[in-house]
Amino acid sequence: MKHDDVALTDEQRMIRDLARKVAREKIARWAAEIDEQERYPTESIEAIKEAGLYGIWVPEEYGGSDMGCLALALAAEEVAWACAATATQYVDQPLGGLPILYFGTDEQKKKYLPRLATGELLAAYSLSEPEAGSDAAGLRMTAVRRGDHYVLNGSKQWCTNGDHAGILTVFATVDRAKRAKGITAFLIEPDMPGFAVGKKEKKMGIRGSPTVALHFTDCRVPVEQRLGEEGEGFKIAMATLDVTRPATGSMAVGIAQAALDAAVGYAKERKQFGQRIGDFQGIQFMLADMAIQVHAARLMVHYAARQVDAGIRGNSYEASMAKCWAGDAAMKVATDAVQVFGGYGYTREFPVERFMRDAKIMQIYEGTNQIQRLIIARELLGG
Q1: Distance between CA atoms of residues 254 and 87, nearest Å
Q2: What's the pLDDT score for residue 242?
Q3: How far is CA 264 from CA 98, 245, 259, 285, 326, in A?
Q4: Chain centroid offset of residue 175 CA
């Protein structure tokens, strides 16, 4: 299947090909087992580290390759093609680390970014709470300043990699009445007294990517671990998501491409009524529609990523469109792939049932697709 690489630089093509090689030769072989056992994708993470793919978004002065948002999206798509759980872990690194790059002090950057670039240190990002998911401004976890430290109390929910991260970008409020303007960001290390990892969720898909609750009980956080100023947290959270949305969308593209590839391969081999099922127009039209969805999703993701690389911030309109379309495409294409496989598609003998389960989260995390539509509508209506 030919991918659009007309506008890619030699460097971007190289990083995509490297990620593809790692994904198909190494990561893919463990994907089914990781899903079945709901275990951490240790081997996959090590393969990504060895290939040097963790440092794509990190500037060279901190040990990264500084290749930009599109290069990150290209790598994320290839990893997701092989294993969506591993891709979720992979994209969690810039999600947790970009706030430090964009808003951190020189000391914070020097302390964390070089180790994030190598993968020696893993990051997490924790915004959602049990009562504040889509309403990200409605956080209840409190941060109270006491001299040279803050005291954090409350719980976070749905934290990807929260039990394996060495640094967590966590958002709390210094004043609930201020809603978004009270939210403040903190860099939490797991050995801070009063911090505890809670329940690990048993999930429908991306089972190898741990999703946990976090609990803060009179957790003392030094003032130097605050990220940005008091009340800047919401801005930090949203600015980060604008940059990571193309990478999230690219994971959806990877799942969709894997489902399409599997369906095409099966349609060429499976015979019914004395001929390949791919010879029937009903199947051909399904495959064509699937290919259109994947291709459109990839182009939208690449466009949003190129905007980021061009220095355009506040591209929520295009980034939300890309994430929304790609997430919906992944679900549609993966579901249709199961249909092409028929009864076999419903079994665990073939990977399309995993693709379908993994695809569902793409419509939910990093802002549900309903929230993406709200963002798009607000841009249209000037609200």
Answers
A1: 9
A2: 83
A3: 38, 28, 9, 12, 20
A4: 29
**Distance from the Cα of residue 368 to its chain's centroid:** 13
Closest CA to 207 of 320, 126, 86, 45: 86
d(CA 360, CA 350): 18
The stretches in the chain having pLDDT less than 70 are 1-5, 383
pLDDT of residue 383: 64
* Lookup result for tokens 């590839």: 261
The confidence score (pLDDT) of residue 2 equals 52
Q: What is the pLDDT of residue 293?
A: 98
Give me 90's structure tokens. 């992979």
Q: Which residues contact 63 (CB under 8 A, 6 or more apart)?
A: 55, 113, 114, 117, 118
Question: 6: how many CB neighbours lie within 10 A of its CB?
Answer: 5
Displacement of CA 78 from its chain's centroid (Å): 13
Q: Which two tokens stand for residue 111?
A: 């302390």
Distance CA 13, CA 135 (A): 38
CB 117 within 8 A of CB 48: no
- The per-residue pLDDT for 133 is 84
Question: Which positions are catalytic?
Answer: 366
